[in-house]
């Protein structure tokens, strides 16, 4: 073991300045250390002999947030302007994601999913509001969001942790969904906040795990945060899921059934077998047989999850129970569209006015109508992890695409009619 003490601002080994004050003693494995790392990653200074040695005690300040000095380049799918799938370009050696604040974690992405939000973000959806968030959080340093990496969720391995990270360590297998302003997960590496992730379920593969985080976090925001559903009070309550066969629907049905709810859902005729296999008590084909009449003849609902929007929202409001706590939660919110069309502030004002109209619609029906949006949620992911490990929730994956076929995966999602999720295997570049 070689010791490389540095005193004051001068490295005793090479007499160079600029290493800062002595402030920490740490043990680490070093593969490749030279003066270029000074002031960049961990300020250390070593002779060729010291470089050859693999384990060292390092004296010196920790100027940055962690001690990892790994990949500086990574492969990723990027867009350089908004548009259609043709805008997606595979870049073999773009600047690797790096930790910039103490509670961040660098993960190696093994798999990620493609969500409708990725397809829409590729087209510029939400850019005005999300750019405000990007600027606030320092993700738009050169004044532009481009090149932009899409992808909101992942399953992978922790490579490096910031100094404030206590819950995770290098080597942990984790999953999660990232806030919309962060550079995305359709890449070899991604930086996430420790609050956005949890340990991955041990009983499923990365390509299965990656299908869950974004839809789980959104469903949790809708049913639990906004809908105020609690596991211990859920049993026997009546839930209607509008759109049961897609990513959100297949997850929501399983969550609700594992909490003992009675679940009715709408879907196409060819998806009825799928949603009943997931536990739905009643499946209504929305394309034939007068679905609204059928739904109207049923007992009223305590909670409605609306993944469809538009006219469906107002029609479904009339199916709410006329008791105080019944709620319709729609995840088809106009907030991003309004801010794109009108600008951020007027868009927010218009959204607030829309919310007022929806509140009146809810009051008319006896319950309340609310909006929910995706919220990253590490503690919800941890609850979901346990439910997956106890087989209460299963990943529903329609198709897994190799990393080099991301545009085909986007096409699949934009064509709609999904039965579960579309996943990308980022470790398969065949
Ligand atoms: N606010 C947020 O933060 C947030 C987050 C996540 C998702 N979302 C939105 O929520 C929606 C659903 O997301 P997702 O990931 O589940 O999408 P998805 O995987 O594409 O699934 C949508 C499903 O709905 C079915 N469907 C279409 N029209 C229907 C109707 N009228 N009645 C019943 N089912 C219908 C589709 O199948 P068929 O067409 O074959 O019937 C498909 O299976 C999307 O619009 C998405 O943008 C919002």
Task: Describe the 3D structure.
This protein is of the alpha/beta class and 430 residues long. 30% of the residues lie in helices and 23% in strands. The chain has helices at residues 48-52, 116-122, 127-136, 206-209, 213-226, 231-234, 247-258, 272-277, 291-296, 311-317, 335-342, 344-365, 378-389, 406-415; strands spanning 2-4, 6-7, 10-11, 25-29, 55-59, 73-78, 89-95, 104-114, 153-161, 173-177, 189-193, 197-199, 238-242, 262-267, 282-285, 303-306, 327-330, 368-371, 397-402, 421-425. Helix 5 crosses helix 7 and helix 11 packs antiparallel against helix 12 (344-365). The relative contact order is 0.12. The structure holds NADP nicotinamide-adenine-dinucleotide phosphate. The site of NADP nicotinamide-adenine-dinucleotide phosphate (NAP) has 27 residues, from helix 2, helix 5, helix 7 and strand 14. NADP nicotinamide-adenine-dinucleotide phosphate is lined by residues 115-117, 215, 218, 242-243, 245-249, 266-268, 286, 307-308, 312, 331-333, 373-374, 416-418.
